[in-house]
Task: structure prediction
Amino acid sequence: PRAHPGHLHKARDGPCEFAPVVVVPPRSVHNVTGAQVGLSCEVRAVPTPVITWRKVMQSPEGTQVLEELPGDHVNIAVQVRGGPSDHEATAWILINPLRKEDEGVYQCHAANMVGEAESHSTVTVLDLSKYRSFRFPAPDDRM
Ligand SMILES: *[C@@H]1O[C@H](CO)[C@@H](O)[C@H](O)[C@H]1NC(C)=O
Result:
């Protein structure tokens, strides 16, 4: 076939490929121990990205360590679904019940063959058990 000057040829069919972009990052949340906390992360990418949740931690040596979730945490669940728009995917992480040790920085990481993106949010946990004596005084306290 002859070349057509001034005419653009599509390299291939389908939408252009592009690296993930976090369009709605997870929000930072705070709550008390025993509560339920959910984070969501909305990503645009073609082709469909692999989205993972990770907890950002420090090793004793001070270097950053990423723990892939849910790992063996029985109180953590993760889910990924296409949408809400075309070329988008949304990932959720649900922590229930929230424990003091769940406090920290969470990373939503998305990658496809073109590139990767990430976004962070912070979960802050108030340890309610430390304050229980203030809220629920023992019966003896009344007299
Ligand atoms: C804490 O979690 C509960 C559900 O367990 C929710 O109803 C409440 O709104 C949350 N509080 C905050 C500050 O997000």
In short: Residues 29-31, 35-36 surround 2-acetamido-2-deoxy-beta-D-glucopyranose (CB under 6 Å). The first helix runs from residue 132 to 135. The mean pLDDT is 89. The longest strand covers residues 116-126.
